[in-house]
Amino acid sequence: MECDVKLTKLAKCAGCGAKVGAGTLAKLLGDMKVLQDPNLIVGYDKSDDASVYKLTDDIALVQTVDFFPPICDDPFTFGQIAATNALSDVYAMGGEPKLALNIMAVPNDMPSETVHEILRGGYDKAFEAGTIITGGHSIFDDEPKYGLAVTGFVHPDKVLTNSGARPGDVLFLTKPIGIGILTTAAKVGMVSKESMDLALKLMTTLNKSARDAMVRYRVHACTDVTGFSLLGHGLEMAQGSDVEIHLDVSNIDLISESLELAKLGILPEGMYRNRAFAEDQVDAGDLETAKQDMLYDPQTAGGLLMAVDPADADALYADLKGVVPSAQRIGVAKEYRGGKRIFLSE
Ligand code: CO
Ligand code: CO
Ligand code: CO
């Protein structure tokens, strides 16, 4: 539908680019007093995507919340993207999302049809995910925002965190990289329709198929690649798992127009934050700067990064190939030798 409101003009920063940096968050949460509970399998101290609480020997609860300002002008698509992104954190833990609540902020002069379209986008993706939106909460705010608080379930023994990668594991990624650069350039009209359509398609593709394939194999660690970028989330995995990660950048699907834009210096602010956070742990070899910048590009509703047992790598790759936007075998985890955590080569 046509809409006179330019949604992205109301947003100060785009999508997951609006995320507070990982370093800042760790500092803010450092001294909080929290109850100790053995049933809390995954809590916020591990910098994981969602928290997991064991209810019985067979069922654990997965909880997560994500919301952000508009990343595109079409309200329905924005709702779809925000929901895809929020649901993703449950998939990244190996879980199945079941219930969700809307979280919404709207300017009080926003037309009700626009608000309705944003919500319709959210309901559309929740429906596709088999998740029921049961309510929510909205407030007035000059900058619109939308997202979901999602509850899912997972078997307590099958929880996937970002800290389980083992030396020898093969690393897979399921969506191309460069979404943040495209959405940033789109704000100043510098993106072709083809590339913007690709970005929108990627951001509205659920990580459900990736999750459904992954849980059939010995995947040891998983995270979704969002605001902290491939290298930011990769670093969290490397540190959390106490391994080092070696990436073959020639196997990473870098969106070609994003790379062109990166070469021109058209980069989101979040790229610089991500670089500042992770850079001293990354040995970039002689990889060109624009390609490095792509790997620090904040993704919105990005793909899953998985570490799988080498014996299952070929089978998982074959399964992923038909069902995810871009199945990429991007590297390996190795035993940590001290020093840097991530090594890039081409
Ligand atoms: Co996540
Ligand atoms: Co998240
Ligand atoms: Co309320």
Task: Summarize the structure in words.
The protein has two domains: 7-158, 60s Ribosomal Protein L30, Chain: A (2-Layer Sandwich), CATH 3.30.1330.10; 170-345, Alpha-Beta Complex (Phosphoribosyl-aminoimidazole Synthetase, Chain A, domain 2). Helix content is 35%, strand content 23%. By secondary structure, it is of the alpha+beta class. It has helices at residues 22-29, 75-92, 112-129, 179-187, 193-203, 208-214, 229-241, 256-263, 269-278, 289-295, 313-323; strands at residues 40-42, 51-54, 60-68, 96-106, 132-140, 145-154, 170-173, 219-224, 243-248, 282-283, 304-308, 328-335, 342-345. Strand 2 and strand 3 (60-68) form a beta hairpin. Helix 6 (208-214) packs antiparallel against helix 11. The strands form two sheets. A seven-stranded mixed sheet has the order 8-11-7-12-9-13-10, sandwiched between helices. A six-stranded mixed sheet has the order 1-2-3-6-4-5, with helices on one face. Bound molecules: cobalt (II) ion (3 copies). Residues 49, 66, 89, 226 line the site of one cobalt (II) ion.
Summarize the structure in short:
The protein is of the alpha+beta class. 35% of the residues lie in helices and 23% in strands.
Overall number of domains: 2
Low-confidence stretches: none
Mean pLDDT: 93
Count all strands and give the number: 13
Written as H for each helix and E for each strand, in order along the chain, the element string is HEEEHEHEEEHHHEHEHHEHEHEE
Measured by DSSP, the beta-strand proportion falls in: 15-25%
List ligands, each type once.
cobalt (II) ion
Trace the largest sheet across and list its strands.
Answer: 8-11-7-12-9-13-10
From the N-terminal CA to the C-terminal CA, the straight-line distance is 44 Å
CATH topology of the largest domain: Phosphoribosyl-aminoimidazole Synthetase, Chain A, domain 2
Give the CATH superfamily of the largest domain.
Answer: PurM-like C-terminal domain
CATH architect. name of the largest domain: Alpha-Beta Complex
CATH class of the largest domain: Alpha Beta
Give the overall form. Answer: globular
